[in-house]
Amino acid sequence: MARNQPILIDIGQGLSMMVGFPTIATWKSKERPKNAKRGTFGFNTQTQNLEYYDGKDWLAAGMQEETA
Q1: Residue 20 Ramachandran class (φ > 0 left, ψ -120 to 50 alpha, else beta)
Q2: Count of domains for the chain
Q3: Whole-model pTM above 0.90?
């Protein structure tokens, strides 16, 4: 999928419906979702990491800026 392109859903007979741009939840470490379910993910603006909840712990994947 190209960058900054809306998500389109085919509703039949050659028609599609735009459902918007994909988004991801953001938070700071102390603001992580309470009672998160396994598989919850989002971006921690404090640590600049994409985080994933494995059902017990928050796991982080470091983000690296793309260079040309």
Answers
A1: left
A2: 1
A3: no
57 Cβ contact list (under 8 Å, min separation 6): none
Q: The domain containing residue 65 runs over which residues?
A: 23-68
6-32 mean pLDDT: 85
Q: Rounded to whole angstroms, how far apart are CA atoms 43 and 29?
A: 10
In a domain, 18, yes or no: no
pLDDT tens-digit map of 26-44: 999 999 999 999 999 999 9
Does residue 8 form part of some domain?
A: no
Q: How many CB atoms lie within 10 A of CB 42?
A: 19
Token digits of residue 60:
């982080």
Tell me, what amino acid is at 29? S
Q: Is residue 17 part of a domain?
A: no
| 68 located within any domain | yes
